[in-house]
Amino acid sequence: MIFYFSGCGNSKHMAETIAAGLNDTLTFIPEAAREGHYDYTLAEGERLGFVFPIYSWAPPRLVLDFVKKLQLKAKPDYLYFACTCGDNCGLTEKVFRKAVEEKGWSLSACFSVQMPETYIGMAGFKLDSEKNAQLKIDRADDLLMRNIPRLIDKECFSEMVKGSLPWLKTYLVNPGFNKYATDDSKYYVDLKKCTSCGRCMDVCPVQNIKMPQGEPVWLGHCIMCMACYHQCRSNAIQYGKATVGKGQYYFGKTLR
């Protein structure tokens, strides 16, 4: 059983690849949370996996909230997570390990995978070039092919790229990001470009967008996955001045 979250497709690709390798099932965390579905049954010896992107050097709040509410009829004997990051992931392992240990579970394995950058909501953040994005994807696929057999064998291991100053990033920068940098009031739409297609509303994993007058309105519970920005077919959505001219990225789609 694999629970996953993805906004721009990187973690979805990884979750689907792992699920195929393990012949396992996938559950999309935002959908399960919307339906209030937190009770699950693990078969004897079944692996429990989580796949998610790193948001400001820690697991997304959505993922941690889901873990907190998740109820299993039996304690998992093998629990792992795999995370995607543009560069490094700080002390994500420590944060996630604490979350599962509070449930009485044990973390058996974890690894991080560098994937193309998606967060460009601040000055100084930018997308990878198309060449670098493809290099990251190729290396990620190689890493997955090496680690999937380890998951099959239920090997205990940790391969996390922490980066420099991990404590500072995870325990000081991340709380600031969650408190101040998920303000969706900075989103706006260029009405000259907007076609009122509703795609932004459809791809928002937390249903934070409505289209009351044929144009997107953000509702105040954004998690800053930036799916609406990156998947807008007409590039009509911007986040303040930070995203202007930076292009778009979604896994499997051409950068522009």
Shape: globular
Question: How many distinct domains?
Answer: 2
Name the quaternary structure: single chain
Radius of gyration equals: 18 Å
> How many β-strands, per DSSP?
12
CATH topology of the largest domain: Rossmann fold
In which range does the helix fraction lie? 25-40%
Q: Return the CATH class of the largest domain.
A: Alpha Beta
Strand order of the largest sheet: 2-1-4-6-7-8
What letter string, H or E per element, gives the SSE order? EHEHEEHEEHEHEHEHEEHE
Largest sheet properties: 6 strands, parallel
* N→C terminal distance: 35 Å
Q: Count the helices. How many?
A: 8
The low-confidence runs, each spanning 5 or more residues with pLDDT under 50, are none
Using the 3D structure, state the CATH architecture of the largest domain: 3-Layer(aba) Sandwich
Structural class: alpha/beta
Features:
34% helix; 12 strands; 8 helices; alpha/beta; Alpha-Beta Plaits; 256 residues
Write the layout of secondary structure elements.
Layout: E1 2-4, H1 10-22, E2 26-28, H2 29-34, E3 39-40, E4 48-53, H3 61-69, E5 71-72, E6 79-85, H4 92-101, E7 109-114, H5 130-152, E8 157-159, H6 166-180, E9 187-189, H7 199-203, E10 209-210, E11 217-218, H8 227-231, E12 237-239
Parallel strand pairs: 1-2, 1-4, 3-5, 4-6, 6-7, 7-8
Antiparallel strand pairs: 9-12, 10-11
